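Q: Convert this sequence to structure tokens.
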Amino acid sequence: MLYRKYGKTGIEVSAIGFGGMRFEEQNDIDYCASLTKAAYDAGINYFDTAPGYEKSEELFGEAFKQMKKTRTQRPFYVSTKTHEAEPCKIRENLETSLERMGLDYIDFYHVWWVLSLDEYYDRKAKGALKEFEKLKDEGLIKHICISTHMTGTDIGQALNDYPFDGILLGYSVTNFAYRDVGLDAAAKLGLGVAVMNPLGGGIIPKNPKLFDFVKTQPEETVVEAALRFLINDTRITISLVGFSTLQHLDEAVSAVDGFKQISADSIGKIRSTLHESFNQLCTACGYCEGKCPQGIPVLKMMDTYDQLSLTGKQIELINRLRWHWGIDLEDDYTQKCTECGACEAACTQKLPICERLKLVHAEVEKFLKAEK
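A:
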């Protein structure tokens, strides 16, 4: 396992972290705890969760019972978050997280889900950062961080406004250009950087042939290649992988163990291809869900659009709607769009969702007409 210093903290963290968002069998506590413990035994020492990740904090807490026995010899670090702005609610969130995980403190506590600069400044005005400082003075948190979905330029402005210790942001070979400026700002300030969705929200492993060009070593998988692309980036401290199975864990560990420096020429070729074709894919973060007043399942529609974008085949879009999402083509959700913009306002990538809904609608109409 490779380890890197988290910004100016001096803490050495594993290049791959355990993202606690994707436990599939959350009712199987023993399995989820054993998966977490297996990651720890494999050398992973950074565990990221949040109150909104269903039972994630409790599942981590079950594993931590065993892991704490060897924490002195083999340190591990915990990251969690709060979306609250009011000081009293922030404290309440933190106390709940500590109780769920059986911890006395959180190593990296994040101002969570910051979607815009206005929102950032609003939370600051309400005293969120001051409360974080109080919690740090009390020893309940060790480091103050921010988790954001803003554009790279806005990220830079927020990071220059407050002395955060680190940042968590979405970054992968599918959308890297969207936040490159933010990574540059974090690197210039010497911050720790954790990236979420390093596999494009599952897009990369589901489309291995399309992402074959990311490979730079013989016999490596696209998952290994995509993770090595990030490991190769010295601005990035940790790539958070959402493990659901031991196979996922083994492949991520293999990506680290088999890592070799990638040449600047190879990185340039990968970036060139991605700039041209893959920078505007939806990464399925889910923040658009429930925002449409017409009840359009926006995330499902954007996932469907991605299938068309990735394959260029109408039938892939149709099959995605019918057999993956179980949507009746005659009940064309996309036709209900009034272009109010609620979904686009919530989109963490600022994608042109309304335009894409029109394209999905047009493809469905063409298919139904041909079928008839």
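The chain has two domains: 3-277, 298-371.
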